[in-house]
Amino acid sequence: MEQGNRIYICENTPDGIFTAIYDAWEARIPEERLRILADGEYAYELFAEYHYVETDMDKAVKVAHSVSRKISPEAYRQIYAAALSHEEDKIIAIYRFLKLGFRVGAGVTDMHAKSEVCRVFELCRNVVNESHSFREFVRFSELENGILLARIRPKNFVLPLMAGHFADRFPEEHFVIIDDTSEMGVFHEKGKAWFLSPIDREAIERLWRSERSKEYERMWKTFFKAIAIEQRHNYKCQRNLCALRFRDYMLEFDG
User: Fold this and answer.
1) What does the pLDDT read at residue 42?
2) What does pTM read for this prediction?
3) Which residues are 152's β-sheet partners?
4) Which among 78, 80, 159, 254 is least surrounded, fewest beta carbons within 10 Å?
5) Residues 156, 84 contacting (CB under 8 angstroms)
């Protein structure tokens, strides 16, 4: 009797994904029978064998170290960014990329004619580009207690790529950046390391509606108007440079 597919269900984080890849690799399941899916992104298949993967930091770190040493640090950078993508095929794409990478070595990242390499490169590029955009478009408001609060609504889970940027620039500030899409936040306490944590959406909504100082918002709107040249308004060009999807929490566009 022909065996069914083996499906690994993992946490939708880089560590969870790398743990599932480790387990799948160890099991040596033929690729045509293998599925690796993030929790919440799957429909049940008949006759499939399901394995629910608990995130294991030791296994995730082993994958990270193996990729960096046996392939290259650039390969690890690409698969880490790809793991933050919202695309459903990201995990199997990373798995196929690694199979090729462990066979050919560091040169894999230049083999763009290979579909395995091209797909991971596309995923990485989309995530990194979106993180760069939100670095520019994040707008902080000051709460009554002095904490700086910002909100974004990205397609991909870009917070891990953004957090270090703002921690380096605001080491002496308490700040929080909320990702509405993933319901996660970056939390940074003055003089300490940043960390990621799930958020209480209702609490964030209350803070956003009632405890924001309007001073930052007035400053942004004043700056926005001051640099504008009335005779050269070009809303089509403006939308190309700053797409509408980035403007949900940009203070200068509020109202």
Assistant:
1) 64
2) 0.86
3) 179
4) 254
5) yes
